[in-house]
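Students often ask why we bother encoding 3D structure as a string. The short answer is that it lets us treat folding as translation between two languages. Here is a chain of 88 residues written in the first language.
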Amino acid sequence: MSRKDKFLRQCVSCRKMQEKENLIRLTRDFKTKEIKINENNEYYGRSVYICKNIECIENAITKKKIEKSLEIHVPENLKDCLYTVLKK
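And here it is in the second language, the structure alphabet:
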């Protein structure tokens, strides 16, 4: 597969370009206006991607990068939900 054929996305925290499969997708659902972890592309709405490492998750939450990108308040339990995705 050439570089053009890969689906590259940018991490909201570290700003590195990576393949879509190596990132966690967070989506603000357009119906309920809630942030959801979108693993199977089942939700539609504004989305951001985060690397699958602890440093990027911590940085994105503490510096409110997810809030700024999705224009919505991040719930308290999102950090725990992201950690469970990392354990999979």
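Translate back mentally: The chain has one domain: 3-87. Keep this in mind for the problem set.
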